[in-house]
Design a protein that fits this description.
The chain has about 190 residues and is an alpha+beta fold. The protein contains 2 helices and 11 strands, in the order αβββββββββββα. The protein is elongated. It binds dinuclear copper ion (CUA). Dinuclear copper ion binds next to loops.
């Protein structure tokens, strides 16, 4: 009698254990499936806007050669700012932009990961070697903004920063008339 009761409760315990084992295997299978799906999805459908660039050849040719850095007035009236971060400075160190104008910031890094953060704005992006970061901006107030590096990039990180100077549109257009690339580096 006693042993019969014992085997009955053992059977119940075994059934419960088996059920929980099945549930945990299902959870693992579900998570594995999700990871596999995400992996395949990333590989077959890359993000629509990933631009790559060779970080060791930045200074030799292409969009980010030194002579092409700074602010360029585009035919449609917008301004493209090209900036490179390197240990421990930004080029240009003073970025010049017009007020109330569509600005597109394009940046990359020549060495390690840096970051752009323009104080008093929501402009904040990482500069990753090998990739071009692009983000839109618009400044509606004339003045100067600090742009510190916001990504720890080794011992000189604290000293890595640039300035953004916002000037009136007419003033910018006049300067752009006789200079291909503008900055406020003296
Ligand atoms: Cu560059 Cu921190």
């Amino acid at each position: 009698m006693n042993s019969k009761l014992h085997s009955a409760s053992a059977a119940v315990a075994e059934r419960i254990e088996r059920r929980w084992a099945v549930i945990s295997v299902l959870i693992i299978a579900f998570l594995t499936g999700m990871a596999a799906y995400a992996g395949v999805h990333q590989a077959t459908m890359p993000q629509s806007r990933v631009e790559t660039i060779d970080p060791v050849k930045l200074h030799m040719s292409g969009e980010f050669v030194e002579s092409n850095l700074g602010s360029a007035l585009e035919p449609d009236g917008s301004v493209t700012v090209r900036v490179v971060g390197q240990q421990y400075s930004f080029t240009p160190a003073c970025i010049l932009v017009p007020k109330d104008t569509k600005v597109v910031i394009r940046g990359t890094s020549a060495d390690v990961v840096h970051g752009i953060l323009i104080r008093q704005t929501n402009i904040n992006t990482m500069l990753v070697p090998g990739y071009v970061s692009e983000l839109p901006a618009r400044f509606n107030r004339v003045g100067e903004y600090l742009m510190p590096c916001q990504e720890f990039c080794s011992v000189g990180h604290e000293g890595m920063w640039a300035k953004v100077k916002v000037i009136e549109q007419a003033e910018f257009t006049a300067l752009a008339a006789d200079k291909r690339r503008l900055s406020c580096v003296e």
